[in-house]
Structure formats: C-alpha cells, structure tokens
Amino acid sequence: MPARAKKSKSTARRPAPAPRAKSGSSGRRVYMITGGVTKFAKAHPAMDFRLMVKRAYDYALKEMPGLTKDRIDGTRISYFSDHFSRQLKAASMVQDYLGMNPKGSVRIEWGGATGGECFQAAYEAVASGRMDVCLAAGYETMSRVATWKGNEFIALASDTNFDFPLGGFYTGYYALMVIRHIYEYLRLTRFAHIKDEREAQRMAIAEGQRIMSLVSVKNHRNALHNPYAQYPKKSTVQSVLNSEMISYPLTRDQICTMSDGAACAILTTESVAREFTDKPVQVIGVGTGTDTMRLADRPFGKVPLMPHEKAKDYEHLPYPGVHSFRAGRAAGIEAYRMAGITNPTKQLDFIELHDAYASSEIQTYEDLGLCKYGEGYAYTEHGDPFLKGIDYGFPVPNAGTMPVNPSGGLIACGHPVGATGLMQAVFAFWQLQGTIPKHFGDPTLQLKNPQRGAIHSHAGTGSVVTVSILKRGF
Amino acid sequence: MRPKPPVYDKFRDVQAELDKSGAAIFHDADGVESLIIRFPYSINYIHSYAEDSPFFLGLAEGRLRGSHCTKKSCGFVYATPRSHCMVCGSPTEWIDLPKKGRLHSWTTCHFGSEAFLKETPYNLALVEFDGVGSVLLVRLKDAVESDLYVGMPVEARFDPNPKYSITDVWFVPSK
Fold first, then answer.
1. Helix (H/G/I), strand (E/B), else coil: B47
2. Contacts with B105 from chain A: Cβ below 8 Å
3. Whole-model pTM above 0.90?
4. For residue range A400-433, what is the model confidence (pLDDT) as tens digits?
5. Are residues B63 and B138 in the same domain?
6. Fold entry, domain A30-147
7. Chain A residues within an 8 Å CB radius of B56
8. Hey, which residues 43-82 in chain B have their CB within 8 Å of chain A?
9. CA distances, A433 to each of A206, A220, A282, A365, B84 (Å)
10. Would you say residue B2 lies in a domain?
C-alpha cells in the first residue's frame, strides 16, 4: 500500500513526543461528597438553564443533610456555547439563580471537554486551599436551535479558515479519523491477505462498522437501566447498521445526540467530607492533554508510553496521525501517574468514557492503555468493556473485565456539552458509593464493590481531553 | 391585546407554529405551559485571514501553498500552512505544494451544518503529499463513495471564480 510506505518517507522530521507531566500530587486531598443530574432530554422547554442547574443542585443538597449554601465557598460553572441560548455570560445567571453571590466563581469552557474541565477546576480550587467546598455545575440547552443549526454551532469549534467552510460537520471529521483507524488496524491486519486494495478496504470498513455497532448496542442497552438517559434502546447490531448513514461509515445510532440537561458535583476537603458523609469519594488523579485544532496538523511521531507498554510495541506506528487521540493519551498518562496507576486494566474497575461516537470509544480504549494500539477492535469483540448480567444479544466472553460506560455513555444518555463531564462524575460517584440502585431505582448497573473509576471528557477531534480518577474513600 | 398563542403538546408542532406565527405554547407531561417565541440572529463578520492570507490569495491564482520551517535543524513541512512552526516556534516560509497527492483518509457526508445541507452528499478528504509532514483537508469531487480508498491518487482543481475560501480548491481522482 503506497500510503503507508510513502508516509514514512515524507515524515522524516518528527516533532517531539508529548511532554511528560511532573509526577505526583500536590496540595490538599480532595473528595466528592454529593452530586446531582437532571434527566437528559431532547428538549426541556419548561426549564431554562438556570432552573435545570437548580434542580441538579437541589438533588445534590438533598442527599447531604446539614450541608447548606453558606458552607459552599464558591463555584465553577460550565457551559460550552453562548450560541445555543444566545445569552452571553450565562454562568452569571446560574450563580445568581442559585443565590451564590457574592462568592467567587469562574466560567469554564473548552469544547466537548467543558464538563471535565469544570470538575478539575473545582478540584484545583479545593486542592490549592482557595476553597474548602466548591460547587462544580454545568449545563447545555441545545434544543433552542434546530439540530442542523446546532451542528453548525458545534462545527464553529473547528478552524473557521480551513475546516468549517468545507461542510461544518464534526461527524465528518470523526468519520475521517475512523476510516484511517480502520485502515491502520483492520485493513493492514485482518485483511492484509486481500490483494485488491478497494475490496480490502471495503471489507475492513464493514468489519469496523460491525464492531462499532457492538459498542452502540452496549451503551444503548446499559441505558435501559438508567432513568436519566435520553435514548435507552434495545438495539441490535443490525438495527444500528440499518440506522441512517450520517457520514460514512458512521450511522445515526453510533453517534450521540443534542440534549438539554444539567449536572453538578460538590468537592471538598477530607475533614469537611468526613463531617458530612461516611461514603466520600476521593479524587486521586487529574490529567489533561491537548492537540492541534486542525486534524490536518496532527504530526506523525512516536507514541508516548504508559508504564505497562514498551517502545517496541509501536516501532512502526506513525502517531497520532488522525487515527488516535494524543490528547487522551497525555491526559491518561498524567492522571494515572498522579493516582499511582501503572496498569489501568488491573487498577481501574470501570470508566465513564466520552463516547460521542462509537468509533471514538474504541479509539479511546487504546489511548487510555486498556489495550495496545491496534487491539481496540478485538478488545471490543472479546467483550471486556461490557457488563456482566446484561443480555446484549451476542456473546461477550470477557464481560465485566473493564466495564466502560455502565451508565450508557453519551451515545445513550445524551450530550448536553457543559453537563456531560459532570454527569460522568456523578454516575462514577454513585458507582463507587454503591448507591446506583437507590439513584437509578434499579440495581442492574451497580458494579460489585468498585474501588476506582475513571471519568474521561473529550473535545472536538481530541483537541482537549481530561481524565480524572476517583477512588472509594471509605 | 393579543390572543393566547396555540397550545401544543409535541415540541415538533411548536417549531412548526413558530415558522407560521412566531409564538406558541408548549404543554408538557407535567402540565406546565411554556411560552416559546422566535429569537432571530444574524451577523456579517469582518473576517481577516491575517497571516493565512497568502494561502487564500494563492488559491485565487491557482496555486496551492504550504509552508516550511526556516530553522535548519527542524525544517518541518506543512501542507496546511502556518506562519510559525508548531515544533520549534521559528517563522516559516511559503512553498508551493505538489498539485498531486494521495488520500490519507476520506468520508462521504450525508448531512452537514444547516448552511451545507443543500450540498449533501459531499466527500471530505485528507490529502497527503510526498515530502510533506502534515496533510490538507479538502472537498473531493467527481467521485462517489464506492470509488474511494486510502492511498488513492488525487489532484487539485481550482475554482475559476474564486470566493477566497478553502472551497476555492478541491481534489479529484487522478486520471
């Protein structure tokens, strides 16, 4: 295949790998003590963003008798786009509606990773000693514009000189990424023996579509037991493949939707946590990574390694190119190091992963070191990210090894951008507390005795990714 | 005085009513009634291409311009130009890219932003060039989904009536 051979010739000069973060934590220990989520929905016309956040906040406070507003030192408030409600400085109105004035606050925005960034901003407020109790709250009201206008607003978060005028369509960008991912990891492996190039790539893409559909079925069926989810569905591989083609090879059921929703998390110090709850959850690691805004600028360099990997695993892999998320890898490396995680598959019990696309969930398995680069498809087929005890309609031999998106993820829960990363924090918090049965009114999704979980938030084509590691604190 | 707008319990019907009269009431499952109105917004930005300008002026002359780093020990070559090198921070110089390349990746979009829906389906392609360290995102024309594959030779075409947009260049399969 000429592309790969010539590529190596054309990329003699490789930029340096992602810088490695300094190891270890600093500052005070930080705990999450409560959180709340609204149901994510296509539209909540009867609630504006202020009321949605208030509902999530009231839920969080109701869970924490004795915790009152006067104990909260300040807030971090996140939403992605001013365009969606045509209300600039909307975070001020949230602060106002919650009655938080004149306490300190910062509005957080960084694309799809907005919610994850907000969570880490609250972490930093407490870790630094600036606050003892910090409220992280986020929302998005995406129903206020038509779906394809909403796609336009989202695509304005791509380079408006070079990318947006070509179609203004994020699904198209992710389709470009997964076509290359399939080429690298299915065409050149499972279909290496097929001589006709077009035919081999066509077969590899069909195989990729089938495996992505497994992820979609997993997330939709998990969500059947999550009352907060927007699109729980008893889907099948066939129904996912038959859903409308949006941007080849991605079908509608492999893509998250626009949503209205809000979520919040309250973070605090160890001593305050002990004062209010006997089931706190500690934040033991935070990591963030970034990459070029334009897909086209992604370099072809070396893979930044995790402790359980070797350089020779990836000797001939141009990285990240457009097939993988270097920002996700950098975020994972930083968060794992801080949390003392040397092998995530052994030391994490579950991940709430930013699956805006079924493709990006599979790509992220590799970025986060759950399997090697190139093994994401097989890892999915073996069933490691699936839950035990749920009927997916196909065999999942390794189910329960590393549950990913037990809640249903973005594909089934929805993706009200500024709330999404905080929603993951709340679901992970409830998992670690063992309170999923109470909050979901259904015990099915509660994992058995999880000790550590990761939450993963991701912005446009992997330009920003956050990973935070939570640990049972009791 | 204005009579109460029509009440709907389907959000889709609310949107249709807004198209007609500009106001509607949504009656939700909890019995809450919300007044919903039209809130239009449009603007023409005074958009400067600034340091990217030579690229877009080049397209209008039928030139495809990248850039390369001027520092000898670096020398990174960019298909999508930037005026400073992302690797070492040195200034770059403009270069002419080859007009022939290969598909690094591709897709066919059956939807797009509202502004581009009428152009669907359209192909997007990342094009790689010999001797160049990054790739270029473009539209790919004169080809359908079943024609396309990674590695396919493609070549540039330029709009005879340039609009100073990245869409002034597109690629087609090489004959």
1. coil
2. 176-177, 179-180, 183, 322
3. yes
4. 999 999 999 999 999 999 999 999 999 999 999 9
5. yes
6. Peroxisomal Thiolase; Chain A, domain 1 (3.40.47)
7. 161
8. 47, 49, 52, 56, 74-80, 82
9. 41, 24, 11, 25, 50
10. no
